């Protein structure tokens, strides 16, 4: 796969209203009932994304990052607090908020171009018009030669690229990404990050990006929210004042590394909490005695 | 039996020398075989042909020598007898009337079953109340073999023809319904969410996601349903028919025309094979994306 950048600014692009796309989450809480009583998955989270801003949420697994994204997409309602898009509460799913999932979510029975057309079809666009728009977008993403392929024949990175193009085709105000590159190999991941940042640079739409990869969050974002282990809450908010446009060489810069180090220590605390606390070295010493010659405590 | 197999195996042997006579590794030998047929399914076709030939040969020998080892082949018609009776049957024309009649019944029974069971299964998969209401009834009726319905069907329907079609319908109905229902339960929820977040309404999601996602299972149901439809049809025709290939086969027994029994059986086999092949073909046309897998 080659790196494809969306370079030509004069090409037609999806309608994007720059003033729109503000996300406000106020005192968000999600509690569900279990056999052992109620459990708070998320509690008291407030965050905002300004129109055109790229914001990431990182945190340990199970901290409710995806829960908030699903609430924004309209798939679930918080048990407390409010989820607002441009000042109005989210009532249900809609094409004004594009969503990218970690699992590949292309429709296997549609070709690439049909997948991209889907949202436009739902909008009621005429067949020839939506085909024209989908083709234009696929051309911009460098995917023209695959437009008549079925998703099953594509690589993981290619599928996610098509998924992003599909979500952008309807001209959403907001893009929600739920660990979109989590299933990809390291190399493809880097390429996808570059593609996404280039795309965003052009479109300037609001992005809320959920990940547990610190490098990814720093490389892509204007701001990063760090969440605590369950019940999920905001632990810290970190601004990323790195210059744009960004290229991957950036990750070697001292500014990047400083940000990364700071976030790393914040996350580490929470990950350890999520695992049930620091590993007790003394306890392991006793354990190691049982393993002839293997000093586990030292290894850890 | 063993003596029958030995001479017939001879034609299969020319395949073997294709392996390099020089001491090659397993890898080169495999490449040699592959290379010779260049990816075409020549080998399975050849093996299939040989195995069919062996079957006919065994049949021929068993009947010519009237083998009698507990199982009695004395009255079983030989392949040549069946060929002769097929010639007469093909010329007279009544044989094709029987075949045509059976095909018509299958077509009606099966198509009505598909037309009812597929939409019902889709709706049951989508609406829990409907599923809860219909599922117990279907579970009670399902284990009853279609043949057991014959007396009831004769009472229910004004004509014999209708009761036979009804039996055929019943036979294919449940496999289609259950497979469709199962298909609905395995639709990937992330695809539903993706559609909803792209602006699809409830109805559009049903049409654009649930239906195509369930198609492979629907076609599994149709294939199984077609098989059961034939089983049910033949049974019904043997019991209450006046025409049809099942009736033809049973009547041949009553009239002591033993070679016609085998002819009828072979006809049923060919028809069953042809109809499941037709469904698979339609399935492939309806689901072009699954060919890529």
UniProtKB/TrEMBL annotation, chain A:
Keyword Kinase in annotation: no
UniProt keyword list: ATP-binding, Nucleotide-binding, Transport
Protein name (Swiss-Prot/TrEMBL): ABC transporter ATP-binding protein
Alphabetical list of SMART domains matching this protein: AAA (SM00382)
Family the UniProt entry places it in: Belongs to the ABC transporter superfamily.
GO molecular function (one): ATP binding
InterPro entries: AAA+_ATPase, ABC_transporter-like_ATP-bd, ABC_transporter-like_CS, ABC_transporter_ATP-bind, P-loop_NTPase
Keyword Transport: yes
Top-level taxonomy: Bacteria, Pseudomonadati, Pseudomonadota, Alphaproteobacteria, Hyphomicrobiales
Naturally occurring in which organism (per UniProt): Hansschlegelia zhihuaiae
Stored Gene3D superfamilies: P-loop containing nucleotide triphosphate hydrolases
PANTHER family: ALIPHATIC SULFONATES IMPORT ATP-BINDING PROTEIN SSUB, TAURINE IMPORT ATP-BINDING PROTEIN-RELATED
Domain ABC transporter: 23-254
Pfam families the record matches: ABC_tran
UniProtKB/TrEMBL annotation, chain B:
A Pfam family the protein falls into: BPD_transp_1
Compositionally biased spans, kind Low complexity: 1-16
Region described as Disordered: spans on this chain: 1-23
Matches recorded under InterPro entries: MetI-like, MetI-like_sf
Gene3D superfamilies, per the entry: MetI-like (1.10.3720.10)
Function: Probably part of an ABC transporter complex. Probably responsible for the translocation of the substrate across the membrane.
Protein name in UniProt: ABC transporter permease
Naturally occurring in which organism (per UniProt): Hansschlegelia zhihuaiae
Taxonomic lineage from the root: Bacteria, Pseudomonadati, Pseudomonadota, Alphaproteobacteria, Hyphomicrobiales
């Amino acid at each position: 796969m080659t790196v494809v950048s969306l370079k030509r600014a004069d090409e037609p692009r999806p309608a994007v209203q720059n003033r729109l796309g503000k996300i406000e989450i106020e005192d968000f809480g999600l509690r569900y009932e279990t056999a052992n009583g109620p459990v708070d998955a998320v509690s008291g989270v407030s965050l905002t994304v300004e129109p055109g801003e790229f914001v990431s949420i990182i945190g340990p697994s199970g901290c409710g990052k995806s829960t908030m994204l699903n609430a924004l997409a309209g798939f679930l309602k918080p048990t407390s607090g409010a989820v607002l898009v441009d000042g109005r509460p989210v009532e249900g799913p809609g094409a004004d908020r594009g969503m990218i999932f970690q699992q590949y979510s292309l429709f296997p029975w549609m070709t690439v171009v049909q997948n991209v057309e889907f949202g436009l079809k739902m909008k009621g666009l005429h067949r020839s018009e939506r085909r024209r728009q989908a083709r234009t977008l696929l051309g911009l993403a460098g995917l023209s030669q695959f437009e008549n392929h079925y998703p099953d024949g594509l690589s993981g990175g290619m599928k996610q690229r098509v998924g992003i193009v599909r979500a952008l085709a309807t001209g959403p105000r907001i893009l929600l990404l739920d660990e979109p590159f989590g299933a990809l190999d390291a190399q493809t991941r880097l390429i996808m990050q570059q593609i996404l940042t280039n795309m965003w640079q052009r479109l300037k739409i609001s992005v809320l990006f959920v990940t547990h990869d610190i490098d990814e969050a720093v490389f892509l974002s204007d701001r990063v929210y760090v969440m605590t282990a369950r019940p999920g809450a905001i632990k810290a908010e970190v601004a990323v004042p790195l210059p744009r446009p960004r290229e991957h060489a950036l990750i070697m810069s001292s500014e990047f590394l400083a940000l990364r180090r700071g976030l790393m220590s914040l996350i580490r605390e929470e990950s350890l909490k999520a695992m049930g606390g620091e590993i007790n070295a003394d306890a392991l010493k006793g354990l190691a005695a049982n393993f002839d010659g293997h000093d586990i405590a030292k290894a850890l | 039996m063993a003596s029958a197999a030995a001479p017939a195996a001879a034609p299969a042997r020319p395949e073997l020398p294709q392996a390099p006579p020089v001491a090659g590794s397993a890898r080169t030998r495999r490449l040699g075989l592959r290379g010779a047929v260049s990816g075409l399914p020549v080998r399975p076709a050849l093996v299939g042909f040989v195995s069919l030939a062996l079957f006919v040969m065994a049949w021929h020998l068993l009947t010519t020598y009237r083998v009698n080892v507990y199982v009695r082949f004395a009255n079983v018609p030989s392949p040549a007898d069946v060929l002769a009776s097929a010639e007469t049957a093909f010329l007279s024309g009544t044989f094709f009337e029987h075949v045509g009649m059976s095909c018509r019944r299958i077509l009606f029974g099966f198509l009505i079953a598909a037309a009812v069971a597929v939409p019902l299964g889709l709706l049951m998969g989508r609406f829990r109340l409907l599923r809860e209401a219909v599922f117990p009834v279907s579970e009670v009726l399902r284990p009853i073999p279609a043949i057991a319905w014959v007396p009831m069907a004769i009472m229910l329907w004004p004509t014999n023809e209708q009761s036979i079609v009804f039996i055929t319908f019943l036979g294919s109905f449940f496999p289609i319904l259950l497979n469709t229902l199962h298909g609905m339960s395995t639709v990937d929820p992330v695809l539903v969410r993706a559609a909803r977040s792209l602006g699809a309404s409830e109805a559009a999601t049903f049409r654009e996601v649930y239906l195509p996602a369930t198609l492979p299972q629907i076609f599994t149901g149709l294939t199984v349903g077609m098989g059961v439809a034939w089983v049910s049809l033949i049974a019904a025709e043997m019991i209450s028919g006046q025409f049809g290939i099942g009736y033809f086969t049973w009547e041949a027994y009553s009239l002591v025309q033993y070679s016609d029994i085998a002819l009828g059986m072979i006809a049923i086999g060919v028809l069953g094979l042809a109809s499941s092949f037709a469904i698979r073909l339609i399935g492939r046309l309806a689901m072009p994306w699954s060919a890529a897998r």
